[in-house]
Amino acid sequence: EIVLTQSPGTLSLSPGERAIFSCRASQSVTSSYLAWYQQKPGQAPRLLIYGASSRATGIPDRFSGSGSGTDFTLTISRLEPEDFAVYYCQQYGNSPRTFGQGTKVEIK
Amino acid sequence: EVQVLESGGGLVQPGGSLRLSCAASGFTFSTNAMSWVRQAPGKGLEWVSVISGSGGRTDYADSVKGRFSISRDNSKNMVYLQMSSLRTEDTAIYYCAKDRGISGTWQYFFDPWGQGTLVTVSS
Questions:
Q1: Of A28, A61, A89, B65, which alpha carbon lies 20 to 30 A from A16's?
Q2: Residue B103 has pLDDT above 80, yes or no
């Protein structure tokens, strides 16, 4: 099973700042099959990025993903008030599909 | 609009059973795999089970294998999760999600997700 480790656990930032999330895999993720989700309190997760760098439909271009192999990054170029949430990475190249433990972005 | 909607959660005693349902709409249901993903209170996400579009193939997380069973009714656009021998550690919000990715493999991400249904296992 591929273990995904996200860092940091919590990011304290202000609106307008850049947010950078890291997701590191315990072994290489097949074909960069890595997705990112956003989850707000009391809501279901929402797909942001798939294939490491492809934005899902309706996702603003301030969200971008990059990486390959074992190291992946999600970047929010300028934080909007609605972006304060928890972010999860997920690999889907190997079975079982696994998630990282999440990174929370809180208002500084 | 693609939508999935779960139902059937509730309070059940350890060792008990419960069946969750998921109603899907807005896409060609029979050609899409569907998954269940759970989230324990205050915790992260855990994939639970997947079923192929035809229903002929299924897979389970080791934590539920032998206790949970996934099925679907393509005539009704429904997916089900039959849970038995429930344990306190099965307490979670259970999400139904449409799988997207390479058809014929299990290489899927989840989009969209339903709003979830809460299962509480407690005496």
A1: A89
A2: no
Per the CB < 8 A criterion, the answer to whether A50 and B100 are in contact is: yes
Closest partner CB to A92 (pick from B61, B108, B115)? B108
Distance from CA of A39 to the nearest CA of B (A): 10
| pLDDT tier, A23 (very low <50, low <70, confident <90, very high otherwise) | very high
Class of residue A98 by CB neighbours under 10 A (exposed 0-12, middle 13-18, buried 19+): buried
Report the 3 state secondary structure along A7-45.
ECCEEEECCCCCEEEEEEECCCCHHHCEEEEEECCCCCC
Q: Are A33 and A92 spatial neighbours (Cβ–Cβ below 8 Å)?
A: yes
C-alpha B101/C-alpha B104 separation (Å) is 9
Contact at CB, A92 and B107, closer than 8 angstroms: yes
